[in-house]
Specification:
This protein is α+β, with helices and mostly antiparallel strands and about 350 residues long. About 40% of the residues lie in helices and about 25% in strands.
């Protein structure tokens, strides 16, 4: 495995990291101006970095076979279709608000790719944290998250909302981040000690820049225009009958967003009173809405949720992340002991043949 000195002939001057995230509830609501409730996971992405005296960027990843450094010049960023785009997106977006210098960097990460834990946002925020320190930039954590979001949304072309970058920049493992994606108002909500959060990968990778995710966003924007609102956040529950008259499948997309926003608020209330039975029921209702109204689940993911929900240690489970594969988040009893996640993953592998695995247990 390459090291920074072996690649660049000197030690790193700065080391920064950022966590992956799991969204407890509030899926496909952030880009509709709505509410989300992510938390950090143990896995992190780390960036070692040293500034250069020119405008060149050289960066390598320990996850890439051979570990050779890739390079480009600041101002000459051009999409390449792989992980380097997230780096280039960050320097392009940050360079629009600050004077940059070239740098050498090495990326290491244990955030799974395509598992729904937002490996891309962890990379973006870790890199921007390293650059913030190295260049002494006056960026607070929210401003840094917005630069990271612009990198992924505008440069990479994945039309994600701001949740992933805000979570990577602000979330921790002891609390959930209750975030209003429109106003960026946020609050830390304590996670009860009686709650264990498990994350189980379906073994089916997804890519946010792929067409299905962006198609859902297009459907939401079209529905908002037809309803005469700025975003689906502005549609009330009393207006769902009117939304149901929209051309299919737009009414179902609206129903998911409206009811999912309500479920986020209800989940925050359930956490505050440590009502984990209510939280589990909200997880299951959210998954059904993603499956039936938003159509972002897959049969294998549905099977994983069903297997998890049937376990006596589990309150509820749901697809987390953008969908079309990825992982499920499971609310389980903290006193159930180790092995619950692997027990569920093993049953899933036996039923589907897919290579499911516990990511957080």
């Amino acid at each position: 495995m390459p090291t920074f000195p072996s690649l660049f002939g000197r030690p790193p001057a700065v080391v920064a990291s950022a966590p992956g995230r799991v969204n407890l509830i509030g899926e496909h609501t952030d880009y509709n101006g709505g509410l989300v409730l992510p938390t950090a996971v143990p896995q992190r992405t780390t960036v070692e970095l040293t500034l250069r005296d020119d405008d060149r960027v050289r960066i390598a990843s320990t996850a890439v076979a051979g570990g050779a450094a890739r390079g480009y010049r600041l101002g000459d960023e051009a999409r390449s279709g792989d992980w380097l785009d997230y780096v280039q997106g960050c320097t392009r977006a940050l360079g629009e608000r600050a004077a940059l210098r070239g740098f050498d960097a090495l990326v290491a990460s244990d955030v799974p790719l395509g598992g729904g834990l937002s490996s891309s946002a962890a990379l973006e925020v870790a890199l921007l944290r390293a650059l913030r320190t190295a260049l002494a930039l006056p960026l607070d954590d929210v401003a840094l998250a917005l630069v990271a979001h612009r990198a992924e949304h505008d440069f990479v072309g994945a039309r994600v909302g701001v949740m992933d970058q805000m979570a990577a920049s602000l979330a921790d493992r002891r609390t959930a981040l209750f975030l209003d994606a429109r106003s960026l108002a946020h609050e830390a909500v304590a996670l009860p000690a009686s709650l264990a959060l498990l994350v189980i990968d379906s073994g089916i990778a997804h890519r946010h820049a792929a067409g299905d995710y962006n198609a859902r966003r297009d459907e939401c924007e079209r529905a908002a225009r037809l309803l005469g609102v700025g975003a689906l956040r502005d549609v009330g529950a009393e207006e769902l009958a009117r939304a149901d008259r929209l051309p299919a499948p737009l009414g179902r997309r609206v129903r998911h967003v409206v009811t999912e926003n309500a479920r986020v608020s209800d989940a925050v209330a359930a956490l505050r009173r440590a009502d984990l039975g209510a939280l589990g029921a909200l997880f299951l209702a959210s998954h059904a809405s993603q499956r039936d109204d938003f159509a972002v689940s897959l049969p294998e993911v549905d099977a994983l949720v069903e297997i998890a929900a049937a376990d006596p240690a589990v309150y509820g489970a749901r697809l987390t992340g953008g969908g079309f594969g990825g992982a499920v988040v499971v609310a389980a009893r903290a006193d159930a002991g180790p092995g619950v996640a692997e027990r569920i993953a093993a049953a899933y592998r036996a039923r589907t043949g897919a290579p499911g695995r516990a990511l957080v247990s």
